[in-house]
């Protein structure tokens, strides 16, 4: 029991009115720390909106218009009028668009596996413990990617031209017929060779960087269990870098559907590359060469949607498989 002295000490002084303990007032937080991530993203978002979203939106809007001549003789200047989906109907009903689309699909089915396979093999060799001069080989493989696509196409056009090609001269010196790199049946493979030369090193570096993140303890345990270097590559390295493989495949798929630079440059060297060789070349010729920006915009919008659908379907399928 509390003593009398303790009760007096605990009681309030005389004349002081006590009340219930006041609840603490909620403080208004003025911290803006949640804004920092968006501030760091702001430069990218500005560039992305200015150079991708805005032009694409403008192209889609323009695709619903067309120039029409009013008057029997057609002497009056054309007027831009709303035509709805007429440009899309015209583009989708044109077999040239689908021929070019089939051509890039065939190109991707052959070129992408070859390029990705070479990139994976070279990445495994770079990551192997017995490989020397890794930095030299990494730089040598990456240099072609540093060369702009137009310059690479001009360079390989020199090798493909029969009259000045050093490859053709070697064949002639051996009394052999030089291969026709720019023929109707071989020009697609020649373009695939340029694309593989350009982007193989880029994908190789992506795969090699993913392998560098694998813990070394896994390799040591595998060697203790008796796995060879080939077994380590097959059962450890390749499964562990599957996200990087999917990323490289996705970028390659998008690049294939957007094929333009290489065939457009080689078009001046051969008649096998027509103005409808790929969908992007077809859209360029309609919009820029023929000055029909509205139909060209419709073709570009169609290819944008097709690219998005293919990319989304690829991501969904690979996520389910993983």
How is the topology of this model organized?
Elements: H1 4-10, H2 36-62, E1 65-68, E2 79-82, H3 86-92, H4 95-127, H5 134-146, H6 149-160, H7 166-173, H8 187-212, H9 216-224, H10 229-240, H11 242-257, H12 261-266, H13 279-289, H14 293-321
Antiparallel strand pairs: 1-2
Helix pairs in contact: 2-14, 3-14, 4-8, 4-11, 5-8, 6-8, 11-14, 13-14
Question: TL;DR?
Answer:
The protein is an all-alpha fold and 322 residues long. It is 67% helix and 2% strand.
If you had to describe this structure to a student in words, what would you say it looks like?
Helix content is 67%, strand content 2%. The chain is mostly helical. It has a two-stranded antiparallel ribbon. The chain has a domain at 109-273: MetI-like (MetI-like fold), CATH 1.10.3720.10. The chain has helices at residues 4-10, 36-62, 86-92, 95-127, 134-146, 149-160, 166-173, 187-212, 216-224, 229-240, 242-257, 261-266, 279-289, 293-321; strands spanning 65-68, 79-82. Helix 2 crosses helix 14 (293-321), helix 4 crosses helix 8 and helix 11 (242-257) packs antiparallel against helix 14.
Sheet with most strands: 2 strands, antiparallel
What is the overall silhouette?
A: globular
Mean pLDDT across every amino acid position: 86
Class of secondary structure makeup? mainly alpha
Describe the strand arrangement of the main beta sheet, using strand numbers: 1-2
In DSSP terms (H or I, runs of 4 or more residues), the helix count works out at 14
C-alpha end-to-end distance: 71 Å
CATH class of the domain at 109-273: Mainly Alpha
The fourth-level CATH homologous superfamily of the domain at 109-273 is MetI-like
State the share of residues found in helices, binned by percent: 55-70%
User: Helix and strand string, N-terminal first?
Assistant: HHEEHHHHHHHHHHHH
Total number of β-strand segments? 2
Low-confidence runs of at least 5 consecutive residues? none
- Judging by the overall fold, what is the CATH architecture of the domain at 109-273? Orthogonal Bundle
Please state roughly what percent of the residues sit in beta strands, choosing from under 5%, 5-15%, 15-25%, 25-35%, 35-45% or over 45%: under 5%
Rg over C-alpha atoms, rounded to the nearest angstrom = 32 Å
CATH fold assignment of the domain at 109-273: MetI-like fold
């Amino acid at each position: 029991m509390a003593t009398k002295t303790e009760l007096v000490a605990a009681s309030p002084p005389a004349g002081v009115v006590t009340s219930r303990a006041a609840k603490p007032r909620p403080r208004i937080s003025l911290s803006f720390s949640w804004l920092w991530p968006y501030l760091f993203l702001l430069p990218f978002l500005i560039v992305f909106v200015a150079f991708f979203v805005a032009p694409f939106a403008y192209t889609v809007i323009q695709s619903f218009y067309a120039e029409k001549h009013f008057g029997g003789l057609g002497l009056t200047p054309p007027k831009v009028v709303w035509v709805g989906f007429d440009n899309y109907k015209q583009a989708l009903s044109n077999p040239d668009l689908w021929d070019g689309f089939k051509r890039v699909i065939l190109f991707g089915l052959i070129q992408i596996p070859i390029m990705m396979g070479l990139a994976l093999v070279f990445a495994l060799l770079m990551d192997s413990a017995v490989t020397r001069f890794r930095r030299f080989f990494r730089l040598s493989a990456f240099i072609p990617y540093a060369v702009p696509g137009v310059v690479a196409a001009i360079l390989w056009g020199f090798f493909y031209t029969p009259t000045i090609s050093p490859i053709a001269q070697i064949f002639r010196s051996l009394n052999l017929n030089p291969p026709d790199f720019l023929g109707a049946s071989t020009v697609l493979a020649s373009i695939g060779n340029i694309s593989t030369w350009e982007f193989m090193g880029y994908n190789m570096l992506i795969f090699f960087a993913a392998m560098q993140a694998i813990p070394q303890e896994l390799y040591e345990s595998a060697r203790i269990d008796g796995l060879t270097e080939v077994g380590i590559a097959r059962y450890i390295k390749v499964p562990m870098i599957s996200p990087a493989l999917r990323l490289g495949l996705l970028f390659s798929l998008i690049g294939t559907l957007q094929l333009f630079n290489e065939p457009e440059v080689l078009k001046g060297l051969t008649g096998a590359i027509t103005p409808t060789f790929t969908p992007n070349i077809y859209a360029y010729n309609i919009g820029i060469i023929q000055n029909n920006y509205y139909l060209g915009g419709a073709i570009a919008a169609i290819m944008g949607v097709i690219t998005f659908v293919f990319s989304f379907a690829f991501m969904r399928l690979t996520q389910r498989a993983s």
